[in-house]
Design brief:
Leucine-rich Repeat Variant; 302 residues
Length: 302
């Protein structure tokens, strides 16, 4: 293993091969090399040297694995210091990205305070989204009330990606927002969570949405229908699937047919039967395959 001084000299080298060899060997270094690499990345006049320093940090973090260790804990401390310091914003953002790979629940409070930062809020959300455990979800739900409306869709997206059931009430409330971006983000998150709320849910009205958001709205309904089907709530799933059968878009009809076929009941068969006569060839073929699959399944059970 090279000495710390030799390693940093190689990272600063004008020779591209020497820099490359150094950053590839960064896993051998101790975590206390991170501040030096951060300083090089922030101040190097050569783009190649700055890149070598950033890549070395990435290589070091990637080598730490998932199991706790003193080196991993020290790397987390150094990255938190870099993210919270006075380095350029892109470098601090990189620190948050690297923290998303190795930080644990004990780091959540230090990361969560950056959710309201204008330039680093996205990186903090990205990081918390990937830290396992309840603390990260609690931090995201708590932050939702405090961030600007423009950032609320990002928080909702993070909660949806985490499939955080405890965030379902926030999503149900946010779907009623007059802000279209918030309402649609809440619908997408609620669909990803896939847990039916105990209170009445009012999905956003798709009528005023542009076409691309109408499709996102429909995709969310389908995702939620799939989740309800998997939960055994066939009545809710069928209600949503039947809505999609009335839509003009063939891909939405096809997705609904496939979902309905997986329910496999008499009601499902009755819903699919008219689609066998669809004027759209793709929908008709999908319905035929679904119908035949249901017939085979019923025969096998007989």
């Amino acid at each position: 293993m090279p000495s710390k001084e030799q390693f940093l000299t190689d990272i600063r080298s004008d020779n591209v091969e020497q820099r490359f060899a150094a950053w590839r060997s960064a896993a051998e270094m101790e975590a206390n090399i991170i501040p030096d690499l951060g300083k090089i990345a922030a101040t190097a006049s050569s783009p190649g040297v700055a890149k070598a320093a950033r890549e070395a940090m990435q290589t070091l973090v990637n080598s730490l694995g998932k199991e706790p260790s003193p080196k991993r804990a020290e790397a987390v401390r150094e990255l938190l210091a870099l993210a919270s310091g006075h380095a350029p914003v892109p470098l601090r953002g990189l620190a948050f990205r690297l923290l998303s790979l190795i930080a644990g629940e004990d780091s959540v409070p230090a990361i969560a305070k950056w959710l309201t930062h204008a330039e680093l809020g996205e990186e903090a959300a990205f990081c918390l989204e990937r830290i396992p455990g309840a603390s990260a979800i609690q931090a995201l739900t708590a932050a939702y009330r405090n961030v600007n409306d423009s950032f609320k869709p990002r928080i909702l997206a993070a909660l949806g990606h985490r499939r955080a059931a405890e965030a379902a009430p926030i999503c149900v409330e946010a779907m009623r927002s007059p802000n279209r971006d918030i309402a649609l983000a809440a619908a997408k998150a609620y669909a990803r969570i896939g847990k039916k709320s105990a209170v009445a849910v009012r999905w956003p009205d798709p009528a005023p949405l542009p076409e691309w958001q109408k499709l996102e709205h429909a995709d969310s309904l389908l995702r939620f229908a799939d989740a309800q089907r998997e939960e055994g709530n066939h009545a809710e799933a069928m209600r949503l699937y039947k809505q999609m059968l009335t839509r003009p878009e063939p891909h939405l009809q096809c997705a609904a047919v496939i979902g309905i076929a997986r329910i496999g009941t008499g009601e499902a068969a009755a819903a699919i039967f008219p689609m066998l006569q669809s004027k759209n060839r793709r929908v008709r073929i999908t319905a035929e395959k679904a119908w035949n699959g249901m017939a085979r399944s019923a025969a096998a059970k007989a």
